[in-house]
Specification:
Elements (H helix, E strand, L loop, with lengths): L5 H18 L4 H8 L3 H9 L7 E6 L7 E7 L5 H6 L1 H8 L1
Antiparallel strand pairs: 1-2
């Protein structure tokens, strides 16, 4: 397998996170446990989803600041079905 550039890896990470968030309700802690990515990487990647046209927001539940989950509002120009079909390839390149 060829070396994946930092830019491509960042793009694939955003696709992977968007897919994961869209599949079920996740907060930072559950995303951290599932992906093994550091909190800061997750926060930066989620914040940068808008850079590729994916709209994601945090749905607050209850009084506590971190009580809630992330939700994808729209995939914008990205085809979510393509991401779903190619998820194995995406995760392989993120290793």
């Amino acid at each position: 397998m060829t070396e994946v550039s930092k830019q491509k890896k960042a793009f694939l990470r955003k696709l992977y996170l968007a897919h994961t968030i869209d599949s079920e309700q996740h907060n930072l802690l559950s995303l951290n446990k599932l992906t093994g990515m550091p909190r800061r990487t997750l926060q930066d990647s989620i914040a940068a989803l808008g850079d590729i046209g994916i709209e994601c927001h945090f749905v607050q539940e209850g009084e506590r600041n971190n009580a809630g989950y992330y939700k994808i509002s729209t995939w914008g120009p990205i085809n979510s079905a393509w991401v779903d079909t190619h998820l194995d390839e995406i995760t392989e390149q993120l290793k």
